[in-house]
Here is the input.
Amino acid sequence: MLTWKDVIAFTVHGNPVSDQRVEKLDAEWKAQLTEEQYRITRQKGTERPNSGALCSVYDEGKYSCVCCDAELFDSTIKFASGSGWPSFTQPIANNAIKYHKDTSFGMVRVEVMCNVCDAHLGHVFPDGPEPSGLRYCVNSQSITLKTD
Here is the structure.
């Protein structure tokens, strides 16, 4: 189980190695994604709080990257954070997520990205529920839910 200490270590010492890589030209991403998906995943945008279709969905399944289809989160670790974005306590695998120190907007945060294609997902915070204490705050536009 990852902890905040692990997340910070990844931002300082390097990310876990992904099992695969997907790289495309910017024009290919634009052709594949909706305008909003492109803005969020490729340009590091954010959707308005409580506007995402997956905020209040708790169906069983796996959440995958909208860009490359890599599995990122399992529905069993999704929780109602009240933040306005889908929230998770752990990635589906330790190497599913890439971490980057984000100092935009005068804040210091940890950005989370798909470790396969570098799609911006959102941010992770150390204010989640036990036992990990993590809250992965993810844009609905950056993920898809695949039900079993």
Remarks:
- The chain has three helices and nine strands.
- The mean pLDDT is 96.
- The first strand starts at residue 62 and ends at 65.
